[in-house]
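Quick one - first record:
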Amino acid sequence: MPLPTTAEWSIVKYTLRGGRQQGVDLIEANNGRLKFTVIPTRGMSVLSVESGDVRLGWDSPVKEVIHPQFINLESRNGLGWLEGFNEWLVRCGVEWMGHPGHDRFHNASGEEVEMDLTLHGRVGNIPASQVEVVIEAGPPPRIHIRGLVEERVFQGPKLSLWAGISTELESNSVTIEDTVTNLGTDEEEFQMLYHANFGPPLLQAGTRFLGALKRVLPFNAHAAKNLDRYDKYGGPQPGFREEVYCLQPLGGSDGMTELLLQNALGDRGVSLVFPVTQLPFATLWRNLEVDGYVTGIEPGTGYPYTRRLEREAGRVPKLAPKSSRQFTIQVAIHPDPKSVAAATQRIQTLQGTESPVLDVRPPA
């Protein structure tokens, strides 16, 4: 395509063969400086992002990109989602997200009945029914990849997600651009959580998390034991039990907040910038076990408690009939000390003189 650029950019689509990844479609986009891989077959998840010697992603024990037809979300007492979990970014939702649990709803006869919710919902294991690649000529030129993932139920919720990712040619960043729509005639609950996962080389002994925050709360009593060092990381530890912290991001005058993960030397990092009006909560997940060394930075409409508890806490939003909600997250790779320091300074400016409150009480 005749674009006003000298960048050697490309977009390639291919299909995996063999094992449980049989039939999985991948789209690999290269903007001339940064490369990312999207999985339309797995709800438009992003397998990885790479730029120079920085990779956004992690080394999951799950090595294949597993087709949803081989995933039973109800297995392992509702934890079947973990059987395919290896992406850098996987969306959790749309009808529900969070831990497995029991919830209640009214059926078509108006009777209140019980339903079992599986881990983090279904959207990450639903193939996109329509996929688009759009090249914006600019200037600057920009690549857009987006797909339609639908959760429609007869006599139930009818929710759609246009899940997108874009990047400017030769930039060091990507932007997540999503729209959730209620296609039904009744008001519907929905939940979204952006499960962004980071392993080496960014995650290592001495890695630090920084964010402009109002409050930090432990997810449970186990996490509360280490609340005073929630933002500091050690190396891989055999037998480590995951720790989860619930964050309340602090927005600036423009409504934007920023979260940063930097390596031990402070010369490499990644930041997530998003509007707190769209995503008022975030979760920090720390899994420093040797077999699956990873941390997650997860902006969301709520915390990953099961939906019943989130509803009781007032953190389950609703969509009016035929209405939509947009979500945007700017993800930037920082390849040198100068860019890491600039991100750190922006966060410190947002934070101001008030330190985040460390509250030992879990929020739910």
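second record:
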Amino acid sequence: MFLHNAIPGSGGAAHPSGWMIESESTFIERFKHFVKHAKPTTDQPMMLLLDNHETHLSVEFIDLAKENGVTVVTCPPHTSHKLQQLDVSVYGPFKHAYNRGIDSWLVSNAGKTVSTYELAEISGKAWSKAGTPANIMGGFVSAGIHPFQPDKWTDDDFCLAQVTDRPNPQGDNDGTVASMSAVVGSLQVVADSPQVADELN
């Protein structure tokens, strides 16, 4: 029922908590949906770009990908804002169109609350506006994927991710953290970055 008036060919999945929490089994279902519609084969292989979330790296998924002629390429951590083409050029317009769709629905249905049964139709209309071939192809260009631009990004473009990539602090004999100097040092590297300085000014 929650796919009522969805775009033809849509697939859906739900999580008991209501949060967008993906399990390996849910991702396998989504991958099978992709294979069904994209129709990759070993004779006509396809490349699938993903982040490297742990649910995307199961043995079952990798085996399914090989069997269906899908080459999987994953982005390094903390790079999706630059390298994931949908993040770059589609999700922004989609969120804007979706929010306008929600506002329009609320105006047309005064006093009612949007339920899960309206979301497929509202998000489908938003996707039709945002997921255009031009936006999708623009994402590949902006991310430097196609045409391939290996020198498009430098380490400075991802320097803010260093805050979360710092090594785990070492403990004293009594189990407490020995020093914050390593953490402060890693933060200083980020703070001294020219890019961060420009953003702060």
